[in-house]
Amino acid sequence: MPNDPLFAKQWALNNQGVMGGTARADIDAVAAWQTTTGAVKSWLLFSSSGVELDHEDLKNNIRRAR
């Protein structure tokens, strides 16, 4: 489990059905993290116009596509 104090509010990662949500309607992030916690080199590709480029969790890890 992550040490993020706001993890419980990120229902898309681990939906427990609180506040009217549908339990297990999530991306199974916790199960994925039990399989792997990352690799020496891993990439996530996404395309969005709504990326906050200076977000604390992203700003030092964003790489532009070649």
What is the C-alpha radius of gyration, as a whole number of Å? 14 Å
Biggest sheet, open or closed, and with what strands and sense? none
Shape estimate: globular
Kindly state the percentage of residues in helix. 10-25%
Strand count: 0
What attributes does this structure have?
about 70 residues, 1 helix, about 0% strand, about 10% helix, little secondary structure, globular
Word description of this protein:
The structure is a single chain. With 66 residues, this protein is largely without helices or strands. Helices cover 11% and strands 0% of the residues. It has one helix at residues 29-35. It is globular, with a radius of gyration of 14 Å. The model has no long low-confidence stretch (mean pLDDT 76).
Write the layout of secondary structure elements.
Elements: H1 29-35
